[in-house]
Amino acid sequence: MKPKTTNASEPILALETVGKRFGGLRAVEGASFAVATGSITALIGPNGAGKTTVFDLISGYERPDTGAIRFEGRRIDGLASHSIAKGGVVRTFQLTRVFAAMSVRDNMLIGAQRQAGESLPRLVFGPKSVKRAEEAAQARADALMRAFALDRKADDYAGSLSGGQRKLLEFARALMTEPRLVLLDEPMAGVNRALGASLLDEVERLRREQGMTFLFIEHDIDIVMRRADYVIAMAEGAVIAEGPPALIRRDPRVIDAYLGRKGAVA
Amino acid sequence: MSFLDADFWIGVGVTAGVYAIFALGLQLNVGFTGLINLGQAGFMAIGAYAMGMLVVDAGWPLLLALPAAILVAIVAGALVGLPTLRLRADYFGIVTIAFSEIVRYALQNAAFTGGNQGVLGFDGGWREFQAWASNELSPIGLGGTIQLPLLIAVWATLLICLAALTILQRSPWGRVLKAIREDEDAAAALGKNVFAFKLQSLGIAAALAAVAGFFLALNVTYLYPSEFDPSFTFFGYAALILGGFASYGGVVAGAIILCALTEGLRFLDLPLSSSQSGSLRFIIVGLVLIILAMFRPQGLLGSKAEMQLRS
Questions:
Q1: H or E segment at B287?
Q2: Å from A136 to nearest chain B CA?
Q3: CB spacing of B175 vs A110 below 8 angstroms
Q4: Which of A214, B90, B178, B225 is the most exposed place for a label (fewest CB within 10 A)?
Q5: A24: left (phi over 0), alpha (psi -120 to 50) or beta
Q6: Cβ–Cβ contacts within 10 Å for residue B270, how many?
Q7: A207 and A92 housed in the same domain
């Protein structure tokens, strides 16, 4: 999958009537939505709405039973998850998944793409290209670890980090892949407010400076209102509303489904 | 035979070297990739038999048969890995032990492998070399111990394998294997082709098993199926656990200690029948492993910090 030049009006990601069943359970049903290039889009919905399943489908962990998923115009449903990641879509997990018995630095370096040293023939026959790629990856990792205040932990085991630091590491590691679309599954869960705010500041900076696109699942409606420029609301496996945050918070379907009929969103 | 008999301990050294090479492959799979390979004895059988049959049946020179047999073992690793490496870790373990038993039963029953009669006469080239080497060693007073050249060959090979694996493990390639061991879904999410890396890990382990098989065959001078029963694999695991998870040096230490212990205990002079004292030796080995698990669960050279992070 090669990167393709896209104009800003074309969506970077499009789901077309995507469906997924697990046995008798319809996890996702006829879901269609688009994510605009360079946007920060929020995916909201009550527990069991199918948000994480949508992430699993986009990132290739599950294959949709019906419909199509396009990234930069190309179909990615059916591709292996590592191919999708190589193509420029990276995800984080709801429950952070760091490589516990590896150092923070090694965790970061796993995110590097096109590493000559990961190929056995090139380890033997191209030690120079291996060294070059490794040095470039090291430099990127160092810069990102500094940006996320992980540099003092670089040689510690990732498994010794606090929950919040793991979240940061997972995000920084995802950025190592030089993605064009980042899927964040509840990036704020288990992170203290100050740390969470700096993480989201970083999201905004990356969008502004590098044109990176973000799709994130979030439960805190205040954060969604302040940080997202577009919101997609799901309930019971279907997309029930989408639009700018100000409209979504007044949408009766969203209020009904997501807020449990408690009335208008505060 | 006395406790200080040189030939005896040279034999133990050869056996320890064979187990160490064999268990290096297990360590690559289990300790560094998270692959529970229980079929290592099967790959060893395929490598050793390929070598023996290429020499005896096809008339190849031994030096040419060795690399060819390594290739055969790698192909066998790929054939086993292709359909099974996508399975969950425990299912993979079950399939590989079944594979190794299939290999053993096939060797027992197929006509072209000599069945239980085994394969003889593949080591002519080696014995010529051994005679020459013994002759060369005699001026320095080491000519009398016939197995000494084999010991040197086994340990030189072992040290080369140990060095190569250690270098590989420090490379970006080794780093990806470790990430797969830690969390293969997260590794895939970062663009790593988990399946391809596992296949390479299994292929290299199969090659190491084949090399161990060559030396086993040269040591006992003929090939027969029951040399390759699954207990060989489990003995390799015992060396791995003793030496420590995710440590190549550890498996070498583990293999030496285990072989020295099981063989050295032959000198225990107790009023027991030979089958009784044989069982007693394994009871003692088992006790050593249990005591180790209690007081040093990470093994001799394993990392306690890493072990705790994994649990």
A1: helix B274-295
A2: 13
A3: yes
A4: B90
A5: alpha
A6: 9
A7: yes
Q: By the CB < 8 Å criterion, does B172 face chain A?
A: yes
Which residues in chain B touch residue A126, judged by CB atoms under 8 angstroms apart?
A: none
Q: Collect all residues of chain A within an 8 Å Cβ-Cβ radius of residue B309.
A: 100-101, 157, 159-160
Q: Which domain holds residue A128?
A: 99-160
Using the beta-carbon criterion (under 8 Å), do B179 and A110 form an inter-chain contact? yes
pLDDT per residue as tens digits for the range A12-69:
999 999 999 998 888 999 999 999 999 999 999 988 899 999 999 999 999 999 999 9
Digit-coded pLDDT (tens) for A149-178: 999 999 999 999 998 899 999 999 999 999
Indicate which of A99, A109, A130 best probes the interface with B, i.e. most B CBs within 10 Å of its own CB. Answer: A99
Task: Count up the domains in chain B and report the number.
Answer: 1
Residues A234 and A187 in one domain: yes
How far apart CA B69 and CA B207 sit, in angstroms, is 9
What gap in Å lies between CA B187 and CA B192, rounded to an integer?
6
Is the separation of the CB atoms in B249 and B17 below 8 Å? no
Per CB-CB distance under 8 Å, the chain A contacts of B178 are 99, 101-102, 106
> How far apart are the CA of B78 and the nearest CA of chain A, in angstroms?
16
Q: Is the dihedral of CA B228, B229, B233, B235 positive or negative?
A: negative
* Nearest CB partner across the interface for A82, out of B171, B194, B306: B194
Q: Is residue B194 within 8 angstroms of chain A, CB to CB?
A: yes
Positions of chain B with pLDDT under 50? none
A chain contacts of residue B303, beta-carbon cutoff 8 Å: 101
A150 and A136 housed in the same domain: yes
Q: Is residue A153 assigned to a domain?
A: yes
Cross-chain residue pair B182–A86, CB shorter than 8 Å: no
Is the separation of the CB atoms in A103 and A156 below 8 Å? yes
**Number of separate domains in chain A:** 2
Q: pLDDT: is A198 or A69 the higher one? A: A69
Question: Is pLDDT of A264 > 80?
Answer: no
Kindly identify which residue of chain A lies nearest to residue B174, measuring between CA atoms: A118
Range of the domain at B199: 6-229
The pTM score is 0.92
Which of B179, B183, B189 is facing A81, going by the closest CB pair? B189
Token code pair at residue B250:
């550890």
d(CA B264, CA B150): 20
**SS3 assignment, position A250:** coil
**pLDDT band at A90, cuts 50/70/90?**
very high
Nearest to B84 by CA among B75, B74, B94: B94
Tokens 């292709």, located at residue:
B82
Q: Which residues on neighbouring strands pair with residue A185, listed in sequence order?
A: A217
For residue A157 the two structure tokens come to: 């085991």
Is the pLDDT at A140 greater than 60, yes or no? yes
Are B123 and B218 contacting, i.e. CB atoms less than 8 angstroms apart?
A: yes
Q: Which residue has the higher pLDDT, B240 or A261?
A: B240
Verify whether the Cβ–Cβ distance A102 to B189 is below 8 Å.
Answer: no
